Amino acid sequence: MTTASKITLVRVAFVPIIMVLMYFSGGYLNLWMWISLGVFILASITDYIDGHIARKHNQITDFGKFLDPLADKLLVIAVMCMFCQWGKMPAWALMIVLTREFAVTGLRLVAVGKGKVIAAGWSGKIKTASTMVGLCVWMAFPTTGWLSQVVLGVILATTVYSGVEYFIKNWKCLWD
Question: What is the dihedral sign for C-alpha 9, 11, 15, 16?
Fold first, then answer.
């Protein structure tokens, strides 16, 4: 297993830790939420680090192409579920995110069945980065005001755009 993949697995290991810390915070800005935010930021930074190492040291593998986006999904969806539980993210918005993630994962599985690997595209990377930043904002400012609405709008816009782009660029995988 490559160093990049090991770092990605560390990101996956952070998911339950972040959820427990957020649970202890109760959805309020307190010490537990600040610790949650710190661990989330650290986990999010590993997304950049593992990609950098993979490219720099020629450690790009099919396993890494599969594991990296999965780790990202687990990380952000776990935090979104906590916000949804607290009523700070509407369930319909979470469902849009989940639908996109399942659809793109399904597309990737169909492609793999045909001997192709669909790596993360730029719009997917922008979606992931903007979602991670947005979730950091929600953790640091857990309110339901205009800032929350802006964060939600950015998350949904980048999610839908990148999902549509994946299907437009790779639609042939479904019919070939």
Answer: positive
| Three-state DSSP class for residue 159 | helix
0.85 exceeded by the pTM? yes
CA-CA-CA-CA torsion sign (106, 111, 114, 116): negative
What radius of gyration, in Å, describes the C-alpha atoms of the chain? 16
Burial state string for 67-87 with b = 16 or more CB within 10 A and e = fewer than 16: bbbbbbbbbbbbbbbbbbeee
- Specify the residue for token string 């307190």: 30
Helices 31-56 + 62-85 axis angle, to 10: 160
Query: Using CA atoms, how far apart are residues 41 and 135, in angstroms rounded to an integer?
Result: 10
Digits of tens for pLDDT over the chain (176 positions)?
A: 899 999 999 999 999 999 999 999 998 999 999 999 999 999 999 999 998 999 999 998 878 878 888 899 999 999 999 999 999 999 999 999 999 999 998 998 898 888 887 877 899 989 999 999 999 999 999 777 899 999 999 999 999 999 999 999 998 888 86
